[in-house]
Amino acid sequence: MGKWLQAFLFIAFASSIAAERNPRTERISGSAGDVLEDDPVGRLKVYVYELPSKYNKKILQKDPRCLSHMFAAEIYMHRFLLSSPVRTLNPEEADWFYTPIYATCDLTPTGLPLPFKSPRMVRSAIQLISSSWPYWNRTEGADHFFVVPHDFGPCFHYQEEKAIKRGILPILQRATLVQTFGQRNHVCLKDGSITIPPYAPPQKMQARKIPLNTPRSIFVYFRGLFYDVNNDPEGGYYARGARAAVWENFKNNPLFDISTEHPTTYYEDMQRAVFCLCPLGWAPWSPRLVEAVVFGCIPVIIADDIVLPFADAIPWEEIGVFVAEEDVHKLDTILTSIPPEVILRKQRLLANPSMKRAMLFPQPALPGDAFHQILNGLARKLPHQKSIYLKPGEKILNWTAGPVGDLKPW
Amino acid sequence: MKLSALHQSYLSRRSNSFRSSGPLDSASDAGYKSSAAVFWLILHGLCCLISLVLGFRFSRLVFFLLFSTSSSNLYTPPLRSAAELAKTLDVHSVQSTNPVANNLQLPFPNKTATNSRVIVGRHGIRIRPWPHPDPVEVMKAHQILERVQKEQRLQFGVKDPRTIIVVTPTYVRTFQALHLTGVMHSLMVVPYDLIWIVMEAGGVSQETASLIAKSGLKTIHVGFNQRMPNSWDERHKLESKMRLHALRIVREKKLDGIVMFADDSNMHSMELFDEIQNVKWFGAISVGILTTSANIAESLDRKEEEENPRMPIQGPACNASNMLAGWHTFNILPFAGKTAVNIDDRLTVLPRKLEWSGFVLNSRLLWKGGEDKPEWIQDIDMLDGDVESPLGLITDPSVVEPLGSCGRQVLLWWLRVEARTDSKFPPRWVIDPPLDITIPSKRTPWPDAPPELPAKEKPEMGIQDPIVKHVTKTRTSRSKHRSKRKHETRTDTQTSTRHAEQN
């Protein structure tokens, strides 16, 4: 009896010590539970189609800048899946099918991707897989996923009006799309898509870390354009006027360290700031969110109806501050009226290493990083419903829909 | 171009309206048709003219104001410039003259999904009426920053910080307020507990007491009966004696903490106070030496023309394994014969070989009674003679701990700037009662007062003399310069008025 009591007390004592929280960080529990640390291995199987290298490797060889710009996630996802334990070489047992197309790698001399050929490229790839393997026709792509990290994702255009007019590429209507663009009630975000963060170079950010006891003395920090002088000189179109409003209202405010300059100490300055503004630009998402999370600066998101990366796994409301675009002129009142305890809690949540890892695409992959979060998201959608399997001869997608230019072969 | 969509839709709308008005009526109504066409031509011409004048695509503004929905995009006041104001006024006038424009359909590609509140297209830029910081909010922001930094210190800073005991020798002189205020403000910002021991040569004075009382720190103000001598050598000796006396006070009162020596003319960085918390018994830090004379620049230029003149640094020197290997001291040779001997000399003032301020020690070293004091510390009561530097307090120099990443970080700077011994200054640097003389400033851009007549010059000169007597000699030359410039400007204005009168 005494021995059992001793054993019980020992176990209780040990568990109380183990449960003692490190006050520096806080666990992140999102709407899907504590899923940031879930391990997808064993929960799903992915089959990677072997496409000819003109869809992937040759494009990359033509322009290696694609490996470092913010759309590089599509390339790194392919490389990750090729060597991941979730990959299966037997397509019969696969839950998900991945098509490696580098659609965002046609770059201008200044480095911006042109999306004009991407619809034709995707269409030709899907024609190839639907004719060489039976799995596409079985479900018309409902158990396939594609990585489309461009500005407006599967709409394949950089201008919002044109992207909305085109809509999601018709042949991708049933597939799961992994994209950086996310805005509620928008044509280019369909139900069931997985939003991912844009690519930010992990080694560069890691190399510029400063000691953690450097006091945070900047209140609000932002570096970037307020007016896109080339395309929208008067303002009002770019960022729906929100960035211009930030400049006009707060350029005289010493608490706001905002400017269009590109300093060499950009990463170091972010680590010395309490709030980092992440306003929308031509599209609502930006790599600033990733940088703010990695450097422990609370992101202030100014983009109406935006859907943030891994929104079902990460409780963004508790981590960042959301400001409606119409309230931008009151930004200083909003930020100074946040109670200090709330700010400290947000900083603790940001300090959690699993939060920082979930935003990055490290090479080689680490457990809990963005690749694994994508696989977790795919695993959460399993098992597939029986209704996605089509009866033989049944066709739902219209292969000739869309602008005439898209139907030309690539 | 991103904006071409709107322009194209505008053009297509116009062509649509032309086409729609065509089959509307029969040939008998040719008059109505042509008037509509003419009317559109006139409207188009008017819009083009307005765009020419204002330099802006006017059509866009028409669309924006006429067809944007009520989702509060119309926040026009206050407008950014007079040009925009002119644009809105013109729009209103155009609207009143052609009600036909309102009937047009809008083929605006506004096809967001039905429930979205977010609209593609041009939005207004909201600017509040007073876009300047509110002082209450600025205070709140600073309080937030303080709280965040306190939390950072708790998590990443020094665990169990010890009290810092600061020893400062000082005496009443012209620049005392300047130097002492600098040190005082540095100490007020230090986030740890502080005890400030101020040793004053010449006895406790009201000047110093009132100055340090403003700090709000725990101070021990002790007077020393000797007056500060005029030669630098004697001065250094007296300061060393004063510091030893302060160490005796630490021993008597059994103050617990880290003793550091802050001379009142030195400049300290905040990282210094964080770094000295790491000392165990006896530590040394690197001191940057800022010497004050033009002579230095000349001598350095001659020797190292290509290299940058380096700031001499006193402090510990480490070998590759980060162990104390020796000391960097100040090289006096370049300044042989050119150094200041007395305070009044305008030559360089040099530091000693190793300054007191470059050393910190644990106050327990000074306590009587054994505990776990190391053996290499000498008893201060036994010391009677001059101790040039704290190294004289210890028997074994190799036990000194180098701080600041082994002396590579310079955490404080030494500088000696003093005014002449006979320089005068108003007591406590307060002019009381205030002077009754006002001198018109000749540098304002507003010609509020008429130019002075030459007859008034003499009384002004007379008035200036009493002021000259009040200020110190260093100021006299400056005020003379000032009066010279005033003469020049006065004559200039006189000549200009004469020219004006002639013209």
TrEMBL record, chain A:
Compartmental location: Golgi apparatus membrane
Domain Exostosin GT47 stretches: 43-338
Keywords linked to the UniProt accession: Glycosyltransferase, Golgi apparatus, Signal, Signal-anchor, Transferase, Transmembrane
Signal peptide: 1-19
Main location: Golgi
One protein family per Pfam: Exostosin_GT47
Name of the protein this chain belongs to: Exostosin GT47 domain-containing protein
Transmembrane keyword on record: yes
InterPro entries named among the record's database cross-references: Exostosin, Exostosin_GT47
Lipid bilayer topology: Single-pass type II membrane protein
Family statement: Belongs to the glycosyltransferase 47 family.
UniProtKB/TrEMBL annotation, chain B:
The enzyme's E.C. designation: 2.4.-.-
Membrane topology of this protein: Single-pass type II membrane protein
SUPFAM superfamilies recorded: Nucleotide-diphospho-sugar transferases
Composition bias type Basic residues, residue spans: 470-488
Top-level division of the source organism's lineage: Eukaryota
UniProt KW keywords: Cell wall biogenesis/degradation, Glycoprotein, Golgi apparatus, Membrane, Signal-anchor, Transferase, Transmembrane, Transmembrane helix
Transmembrane spans: 37-56
A Pfam family that the UniProt record links to this protein: Glyco_transf_43
Region (Disordered): 441-503
UniProt-annotated location(s): Golgi apparatus membrane
Signal peptide boundaries: none
InterPro entries to which the protein is assigned, alphabetical: Glyco_trans_43, Nucleotide-diphossugar_trans
PANTHER family: BETA-1,4-XYLOSYLTRANSFERASE IRX14H-RELATED, GALACTOSYLGALACTOSYLXYLOSYLPROTEIN 3-BETA-GLUCURONOSYLTRANSFERASE BETA-1,3-GLUCURONYLTRANSFERASE
Role according to the record: Involved in the synthesis of glucuronoxylan hemicellulose in secondary cell walls.
Family to which the UniProt record says this protein belongs: Belongs to the glycosyltransferase 43 family.
Protein name per Swiss-Prot or TrEMBL: Glycosyltransferases
Organism: Hibiscus sabdariffa (roselle)
Lineage of the species this protein comes from: Eukaryota, Viridiplantae, Streptophyta, Embryophyta, Tracheophyta
